[in-house]
Amino acid sequence: QVQLVESGGGLVPPGGSLRLSCAASGSIFSIYAMRWYRQAPGKQRELVAAISSGGSTNYADSVKGRFTISRDNAKNTMYLQMDSLKPEDTAVYYCNADIRYAIHTGSKAYWGQGTQVTVSS
Question: For the stretch 45-82, what's the b/e string if a residue is b when 16 or more beta carbons lie within 10 angstroms of its beta carbon?
Fold first, then answer.
């Protein structure tokens, strides 16, 4: 069984920073692309940032230059460094990863449970 667990959310004033982590555990053969999504109240879930197994990244226009996605393949962990936070960044942040749990299987998308980020003074 594969699990993704996010951590690092919280309350931060505008202009502040937070670092989210997403740790994958369980029976893992390989992790491919990893992504951060967010969902604000009353809005659809949106892709924030993605990183390939080789480290290529892409970002939503709304977070470019403020957020940085990274991963530590040895630890099966992904990070999201969020700087210059704005009230509109307030949302539940979810991690998502394409994981192959055994050599004889294909990959499957897994989701974490989400972590709340609130940007407010």
Answer: eeebbbbeeeeeeebeeebeeebbbebeeeebbbbbeb
CB 8 within 8 A of CB 22: no
Asked whether the beta carbons of 11 and 118 are under 8 A apart, the reply is yes
Q: Which of 40, 44, 24 is nearest to 32 (CA)?
A: 24
The first and second tokens of residue 30, run together, are 């390989």
Which pairing describes strands 115-119 and 10-12: parallel, antiparallel, or unpaired?
parallel
Q: What is the pLDDT of residues 10-41, one digit of tens each?
A: 999 999 999 999 999 998 999 999 999 999 99
**What span, in angstroms and rounded, lies between the C-alpha atoms of 113 and 4?**
8
**CA-closest candidate to residue 97, choices 48, 24, 1, 25:** 24
What gap in Å lies between CA 52 and CA 31, rounded to an integer? 9
The span from the CA of 32 to the CA of 9, in Å, is: 24
104 — pLDDT class (breaks 50, 70, 90): confident
